[in-house]
Write a structure and sequence with these properties.
- Helix content is about 45%, strand content about 15%.
- The chain has a six-stranded mixed β-sheet, with helices on both faces.
- With about 260 residues, the protein is α/β, with parallel strands linked by helices.
- A hairpin with a 2-residue loop joins strand 1 and strand 2.
- The protein folds into two domains: about 190 residues, 2-enoyl-CoA Hydratase, Chain A, domain 1 (Alpha-Beta Complex), CATH 3.90.226; about 50 residues, Lyase 2-enoyl-coa Hydratase, Chain  A, domain 2 (Orthogonal Bundle).
- The structure holds acetoacetyl-coenzyme A.
- The site of acetoacetyl-coenzyme A has 21 residues, from helix 2, strand 6 and helix 5.
- One of its GO terms (molecular function) is enoyl-CoA hydratase activity.
- Keywords: Fatty acid metabolism, Lipid metabolism, Lyase.
Length: about 260
Amino acid sequence: MSYETLLVETRGAVTLVTVNRPQALNALNSQVLADLIAAFAAYDADPAQRCLVLTGSEKAFAAGADIKEMQAKGFAQMFGENFFAGFERVTATRKPWIAAVSGYALGGGCELAMMADFIIAADTAKFGQPEIKLGVAPGMGGSQRLTRAVGKAKAMDMCLTGRMMDAAEAERASLVSRIVPAADLVAEALKAAEAIAGMPPLAAIANKEMVNTAFETGLATGILFERRLFHGLCATADKAEGMAAFVEKRPGNWTGK
Ligand code: CAA
C-alpha cells in the first residue's frame, strides 16, 4: 500500500514509517493523520510485523500540527470535527512502536513522539510545545504526556515559555530513552526494534500494557494488574518455550501462542 505523506517499508518483522512532507517540515495535516491511522492499523493487523519505527527527516520529525490548516478553523468547527481526536487511533496501537526523532519535534510533533512506547533521539533533536506563541496550547496530549514524562516544573517551563529542549536535556529529563548520533538514528532505532521483534509477541504486548497502566491507575491496582497479566502469560506456549529454552541453554522459538 502507498501513502501520500508517508514512506512505509518492512524490514523483516519491523515496519519503518517515515513522515514525508518536507515542504512543510512534516507538519501534521489531516492527510498525514489519515495516513498514520491507516499505516498503524495495517501494522497492528499484520502478525508478521512485531515492531514499528516512526521517523521523520533529518531536519524535522514533525514541526507541529499544520498551522495553515488550523488557521481558518474556529471553535464550532474544531469541536464539531473533534479535531485531533483521530490520534487516539494511533495511540490505540497494541503492538510496540518507537519514535526515532531527529531535528524539530515541536507541538504536535513532540506530542506524536510522546505517543510512542519510547523515543530514541538524534543528538540534533529539539523538543518543544510552542503552541502558546500561536495563542493556543497543546491539543494532542502534550500537557498531559509531557507532564507525566518530565514532571510539572519542566512541563510548565516548556508550555509557558514555548522554548525548545535539546536532546541532552530531554534525556536528563527522561523524555527520551537514549541519544544516538544523528547519522545512526534510523539504524539504531531499527536495531532496538529488531530486538523487540525477536521477543515473544504476547509478552511484548503484555509488557506494554503494564507500563502504560502505571500512568492510568494507582500503585496497588497497577501492581495487581501486573501480577494478573503475569499469571495470564503463564498460560501461553511461549512461556513454556521460554523457560524450557533457558534451562536447555538454547534460544527460544516463539509461536505467539
Ligand atoms: N504548520 C504548517 N507549516 C509549517 C509548520 C507548521 N507547524 N512548520 C513549518 N511549516 C512550513 C513553513 O511555513 C515553511 O513553509 P513555506 O516555505 O511555504 O513558507 C516551511 O515549513 C519551512 O519552515 P520555515 O521556513 O519556518 O523553516 P525554518 O528552518 O526557518 O524554521 C521552525 C523551522 C523553527 C520549526 C519553524 O518552521 C516553526 O517555528 N514552525 C512552527 C512550529 C510550531 O509552532 N509548532 C506548533 C504548531 S501548533 C500545534 O502543533 C498544535 C497542537 O498542539 C497539536
